[in-house]
Amino acid sequence: MLMTGPPGSGKSMLAQRLAGILPLPSFGESMEIARVYSVMGLVGKNFEILGTRPFRAPHHTISDAGMVGGGSKPVPGEISLAHHGVLFLDEFPEFKKNVLEVLRQPLEEGQVTIARAGAKATYPCEFMLVAAMNPCPCGNFGNPLQECSCARPQVQRYRSKISGPLLDRIDIQIEVPQVSYDEMASDLPAESSADIRTRVNKAREIQNQRFKMQGLMCNARMGSLQLKKACLLGADAQSVLHQAMDRLGFSARAFNSILKVARTIADLACEKKICRQHVLEAIQYKSYGRSDASAF
Ligand SMILES: [Zn+2]
């Protein structure tokens, strides 16, 4: 997920809450998490990792070795320490280009092999990437209450630090707007993390049933075969996706991503069939910031 919004709109807070709405790790997952931490000698020290999902938030000055792992005796990096948990990258465009690009392969494969002279190690890294960025260097682009002081090329340069191929691998791209006074002062009850987790657990239960023969945990890990089976679309859902593909020129990867997200939205609604509105919502997440997407 990539959240774009002005400073103070609560992006970091939202990211930190994510671990609280994810299902608790299974015994097998906890063991895998512990194994990574034990390589680092971190089990039993300050880390209470058993029974919780890791939340890692490295600073944007991190090196590529720190991110994916490295060293003469290869040790796991942040992506492996975030295995089965959340990797939060705040100020996303401020990370070095090589550090961002090196994320692409592990994001897809769920594991990373680090090869150094005479030593080679493979570590798991099935993490959920959550990134946050300002809409422009000053942070006010698109803010109706405060004027943006950046020149247009500056805004473009800032955004282009996130490459197309990397963006293509991010399923959900959303805007996190400034919270208005009315919303902050509102005493309407908000849904608690515990309540949301109940809904997430229900959706995960549906997914466990779906993949019980294939050893998959969730929709995100579907391969092309499972996609074909689990993401059958009705005629109306199919036509809206077809239109979006034609008009927005999505890649094959984006097509798969939209199907997976639409499947997940349907699961959260406890619906067997992926409907038109599920596909539309998934398309919206994939086309954030594109002026040609307003027709959808
Ligand atoms: Zn600005």
What is the share of helical residues? 40-55%
- Cα-based radius of gyration, to the nearest Å: 20 Å
Low-confidence residue ranges: none
Q: What's the CATH first level of the largest domain?
A: Alpha Beta
Query: Which structural category do the helix and sheet elements fall into?
Result: alpha/beta
Strand order of the largest sheet: 2-5-8-1-9
Can you characterise this structure?
This protein has helices at 11-21, 27-39, 64-68, 78-81, 97-101, 104-109, 152-159, 164-167, 181-185, 193-210, 224-230, 235-248, 252-268, 276-286; strands at 2-4, 55-56, 69-70, 75-76, 86-89, 111-116, 119-124, 128-133, 173-175. It has 296 residues and is α/β, with parallel strands linked by helices. The protein has two domains: 2-178, 3-Layer(aba) Sandwich (Rossmann fold), CATH 3.40.50.300; 201-291, Helicase, Ruva Protein, domain 3 (Orthogonal Bundle). The strands form three sheets. A five-stranded parallel beta sheet has the order 2-5-8-1-9. A two-stranded antiparallel ribbon has the order 3-4. It has a two-stranded antiparallel sheet with strand order 6-7. The longest helix is centred in the C-terminal third of the chain and has 18 residues, at 193-210. It starts with a strand and ends in a 10-residue tail after the last helix. The mean pLDDT is 90. The structure holds zinc ion.
